[in-house]
Specification:
307 residues, alpha/beta, Rossmann fold, Alpha-Beta Plaits, 2 domains, four-stranded antiparallel sheet, 39% helix, elongated
Length: 307
């Protein structure tokens, strides 16, 4: 549903996108991660026909974003970083207004608004002005507005920025439902947990290029598991580090020592035996899988070094 080949965009001498490639299959949620200035928003603006690329090709729903922009716009929905709804109007009035702006007739706009209010759990609040909505409710209404024309492709540009945990959970639930019904979603986010929760595939971009791509599990495997030992006494940290090997990392403030664990069971068994034989008293011991945050930091740090 989204195909990007060798896409390039420059602002003066600065490349925002530098030969970027991306493929997003139909009916999936694809997470797009990267530091500020990596090119995420530039890519979304090109894919939604708000910006023209300098080089390369991009197709959305089989349509060229450069030569078939009008047709692309009829096949997509876009939810930006800031809610686009009118706070003075009610939830129902907002959706009816978006329906009319999308060239639906009055009856069709009213019916579509009612369907979306029910779909996003906003029927009871439909007659209330949006300025009385919670953050999560406003974003759900914003999602509903982006689906007025039932687009097969939806772009979400940091949709939960500024929301509290409850509001984020509400939006996550709505996105999962959309994907379950066949909508293709491209999600940009700075919340690594969000991509982990929602995306089947993740692309990490830096300096306008995709530096890593795969499922969250595949990306975590790049960093690998770590065994962690929490000592009871600071004086035991050097001995614990020696037992875990030359790649051990000591976090003295937390009395924690960690090291790579290629073999989860083997590393854990070895650590238990070695610690017992050395008579070291510990507070905790376990093998931990990396988070996407750690993957993100590791890969972007490597890019900084290479530059």
């Amino acid at each position: 549903m989204i195909s990007v080949q060798d896409l390039g965009k420059r602002y003066g001498a600065t490349p925002a996108l530098d030969g970027l490639h991306l493929e997003v299959p139909e009916g999936t949620v694809h997470g797009l991660l990267g530091p500020n200035g990596a090119g995420k928003t530039t890519l979304v603006r090109i894919l939604t026909t708000l910006l023209r690329p300098d080089t390369g090709q991009a197709r959305v729903a089989g349509l060229d974003v450069r030569t078939e922009a009008a047709r692309v716009r009829r096949r997509i929905g876009l939810v930006g970083q800031h809610a686009a709804v009118d706070e003075i109007l009610t939830g129902r009035q907002n959706l009816e207004m978006f329906g009319r702006l999308s060239h639906l007739g009055a009856r069709a706009a009213t019916g579509r608004a009612a369907d979306l209010l029910e779909r996003f759990g906003l029927t009871e609040a439909a007659a209330r002005p949006v300025n009385g909505y919670s953050g999560g409710m406003r974003r759900r209404l914003d999602l509903a507005a982006g689906l007025i024309l039932s687009p097969p492709v939806l772009f979400l540009d940091e949709p939960t920025t500024g929301l509290d945990p409850r509001g984020r959970a509400e939006v996550w639930s709505a996105v999962r439902e959309l994907a379950g019904q066949g909508t293709t979603v491209l999600l940009t986010t700075q919340y690594l947990e969000e991509a982990d929760q929602l995306a089947g595939q993740v692309s990490i971009i830096d300096a306008g290029k995709v530096v890593a791509a795969g499922t969250p599990a595949e990306l975590k495997a790049v960093v690998g598991d770590r065994i962690e030992v929490v000592a009871r006494h600071a004086g035991d940290l050097p001995a614990v580090a020696a037992l875990l090997g030359p790649q051990a990392r000591v976090e003295a403030d937390e009395l924690r020592v960690s090291a790579p664990a290629a073999d989860r069971v083997g590393a854990l068994t070895h650590a238990v035996q070695a610690l017992a034989e050395a008579g070291i008293d510990i507070a905790d011991l376990g093998v931990r899988r990396p988070t996407l945050d750690e993957v993100f930091l590791r890969l972007t740090e490597k890019m900084e070094v290479s530059r």
